[in-house]
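Lecture 7 notes: from sequence to structure.

We start with a single chain of 70 residues. Read the sequence below before looking at the structure.
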Amino acid sequence: MLAKYFHCTDRMLEYGPDLGMPHTRAMRSGLFELRLKSQEGIGRIFYCTLVNRKIVTLHQFVKKSGQDPA
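Now the structure, written as tokens:
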């Protein structure tokens, strides 16, 4: 899962914070979800963007159920 995380963050540095589905999903204005899937499970990372396109990770977890926490 860590390798997929690094791959996606490298792509975000090159193309911007919104890679589109299935990699990222815009949740609300300025809030994004990075969606990772691997043998270890399904991971979610919530992040936002700040001035000068800086990406800030807010929260991450490995999903245990079928629905993200509200």
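The radius of gyration is 12 Å. Keep this in mind for problem set 3.
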